[in-house]
Every structure is written in C-alpha cells, then in structure tokens.
What we know:
Blueprint: E1 8-11, H1 21-36, E2 40-45, H2 55-68, E3 76-78, H3 83-95, E4 99-102, H4 106-118, H5 136-139, H6 142-150, E5 156-159, H7 161-168, E6 173-177, E7 189-192, E8 202-205, H8 212-222, E9 227-231, H9 237-248, E10 254-258, H10 278-283, H11 288-294
Parallel strand pairs: 1-2, 2-3, 6-10, 9-10
Antiparallel strand pairs: 4-5, 5-8, 6-7
Glutamic acid (GLU) binds near residues 12, 14 and 234.
Amino acid sequence: xxxxxxxxxxxxxxxxxxxxxxxxxxxxxxxxxxxxxxxxxxxxxxxxxxxxxxxxxxxxxxxxxxxxxxxxxxxxxxxxxxxxxxxxxxxxxxxxxxxxxxxxxxxxxxxxxxxxxxxxxxxxxxxxxxxxxxxxxxxxxxxxxxxxxxxxxxxxxxxxxxxxxxxxxxxxxxxxxxxxxxxxxxxxxxxxxxxxxxxxxxxxxxxxxxxxxxxxxxxxxxxxxxxxxxxxxxxxxxxxxxxxxxxxxxxxxxxxxxxxxxxxxxxxxxxxxxxxxxxxxxxxxxxxxxxxxxxxxxx
Length: 299
Ligand code: GLU
C-alpha cells in the first residue's frame, strides 16, 4: 500500500482574455498528469486584476475548458474572493520587517535607468527583462519622498529582497520534475533558486491588494497543491515563490514546467491574438482532435 498522498495539480488561468492553444496544453497536461498519478486537477481563477478579468470572459473560459475536457467537478477557487487571505500573508511579511512602501512610477524608474546607462553603467534587469527596482531613496530627494509617503500618491508595497534573504540565511532550492510522458514519474531534481535576480518584488499595489507572486503561493497552499505544472515562462518565477513559501512557512510543492506552444513565427502565443484563441478556432470548426494535434498531444 502506498503511503504517498494523492497528488493535487491545478490549472490557474487568468480570464483577462480568451484561452489560447498554450492554455489548452497547460490544462490538459495537468488533467492528464493528475489522472496518470492517481490524483486530482483543480481549477483556480486568477482574477486579481478586476478591471481586465470580467465575468463574461470567465464564463467563456469555463466553456472552453469544458469543451477541452478539463475536469470542472471540483470546487473552484476565485482569487477575487481571497483578498483577506492575501492581506494576512502580507501582514506576516510586514511583521518580519520585510515590506516597504515604494512610490516610484514606471516612468521614473525608466528615466533613472536611462540616466545610469548613459553613464555607461548597465542597470540590472529581472528574468522578464524589467529593470530591478532602484529604491526611492536613490531617485528622490528626502523632501519629495516624505511628501509622497504622507500624501496619497500611488504606491506599491515591495519586499525588501536583501533583508528577506538575510533572514532566510540559507541557500534556497526547489524540486523540479518532468511535466509529461514518462518523465512524470521521475524523481525530482533540486534546482538552486535565485530570488535576488528579481530584486524588490511587488507584493501589493495601492489599488490591487495583492500581486501574482503573493497570491499564487498563498493559494497553492490553500488548495493543498502538491504539484505545480505550468509553462516554462514561469520557471524563473519559481525562485520567488520558493522564497515566499519559506518566509510564510507554507508547504513546498514539486514544480514541473512544460514546453510552450509557439505560433508560426516561433513566438510565444498572446491572449490578444485571435488566430490561436480556442474560442476562435472552435468557431472556425476546429475539432478537439485537431487542437490536440496542433499542441503535440496524443489523444
Ligand atoms: N495565472 C497565470 C497565467 O495565466 C498562471 C500562474 C501559475 O501557473 O503559477 O499565466
């Protein structure tokens, strides 16, 4: 008799546009892995961006998933109903003294970075290519900073990465296993995490009381996720997720990152492109079998 708990996977799309072929691959790999390993695949709706994630898009997303055959008979977690849980997690990080109010706008960061680079100094970028947050004190005068901190200027709460790593005070790693086929049952490999590559990440914004990184770790724990299976575009983000799990004392899932579906030009698919939206393909008469073939899955 096995003593291993059944694995719990999740597909976690954001209804801020229509699902495309890449989402179909992610959803089906999760469903298939869960089935093969005798576990479950849950659904989480990542709709913290209340302006862009609409109920209509959510409904259409559920229709697409049903058509694909993703299991929808388990309780669905909607991030828009979880803001309190994210605030609690933020409170824990605040209590550790790791959170600060950051007021630089995107344009101010850009200008600062350009000024540095004109002087011949390359400013570090995160793995997604965005400049690391320079810190308010480097850019603003003392008076300007004080005025912003007491006024109602827009701000984000950021994690003080240096202080967070000092508190953790040990090398971090995550467990990475295979995403499909025979690799699913292979023993996971430890991967060295480097959250410092992301600098002072955003935890919450003035008008969105959470962020992707914060809510994803809180919810993976809340849903009892044992296996996170998602696209390789989120591979580097795992470093941040591992750090937040350690700081918040959350369980550690196994990670599995899958290949991305590319368009004819070899580019990553985007939600704004109609040509690869599942909905558009369905309306154009594509069958489920044709979708499976296009994303390289056997029936
Ligand atoms: N909501 C994210 C997306 O649609 C996926 C998050 C995750 O799997 O960690 O890309």
